[in-house]
Amino acid sequence: MSINYVAFFSRITHTVCSALLFTTVAAPFVFTSVGPLENKMLPMYLTGAIVLAGLYNAGAAKPSRITTASGRMTYRMTVYAGKLLFILAASPLLGKLINNAELEAKIRLGVVVGGFVAGAWVKFFREANVPQAPSKDD
Questions:
Q1: Which element (helix H / strand E) includes 115?
Q2: 4, 57, 77, 114 - which has most CB atoms within 10 Å?
Q3: What predicted TM-score, i.e. pTM, was given to this entire model?
Q4: Apex CA 6: angle with CA 125 and CA 25, to 5°?
């Protein structure tokens, strides 16, 4: 068995940064004082790592094996739209567009949770639309 260490590191980076991003955007709703999580640029740094690792993972998943052209387009558009929304929600630009800090935090949390749900859906969508190799029992 051969291990692709780049893919392994990319998936670990994607998972850890996703957990940290969720913690960062959810902390104001759970704790009264969030300490170092209050850094406004931390979500942007985490999102940068998530986007880079996620795009590598999406390419490594070989979406070209999806059987229909519309399925490939759905997969790619969901991945790219999700990454774009993550960047817009995590960037300081959101704070400049919305002058209410509480509303900004709610939007950021909603986008992050929605992105995680879309990411899980995309994984199952890809697996359902890639032909499976016949098993040895068939």
A1: helix 101-128
A2: 57
A3: 0.79
A4: 60
